[in-house]
Specification:
Elements lengths: L1 H13 L11 H5 L5 E10 L2 E10 L2 H13 L5 H18 L3
Antiparallel strand pairs: 1-2
Length: 98
């Protein structure tokens, strides 16, 4: 189901629309043209805690690692890294028509 959703979102984006999706699905994330990691940080400022949202663009290596983290939760395994690489490869092949 997630792979089908990722495919549909990719087709929308390829049709000239801009698509922004926040997802926990590695199958959806792998289809994206660009990926960002969004994290919440609590920082102390003058004795008061403040919550901040941090948005980090991901390069190819950190994108594979993030998708592996999405696949395996806490402990990123070599199997998760390999599966992340396969998802990204399949998404690239699909974008190229293969």
């Amino acid at each position: 189901m997630a792979a089908a959703l990722g495919e549909r979102l990719k087709r929308l984006a390829d049709s000239g629309l801009q698509v922004l999706a926040v997802t926990h699905s590695p199958q959806v994330a792998a289809r994206a043209d660009a990926q960002f990691r969004i994290a919440k940080e609590v920082r102390e400022d003058n004795g008061e805690a403040a919550t901040h949202t941090v948005v980090m663009p991901l390069d190819a290596a950190s994108r594979r690692e993030e998708i592996a983290r999405m696949l395996s939760a806490h402990d990123i395994t070599e199997e998760a890294r390999a599966q992340a690489a396969r998802l990204l490869e399949q998404a690239g092949a699909a974008a190229d028509g293969g």
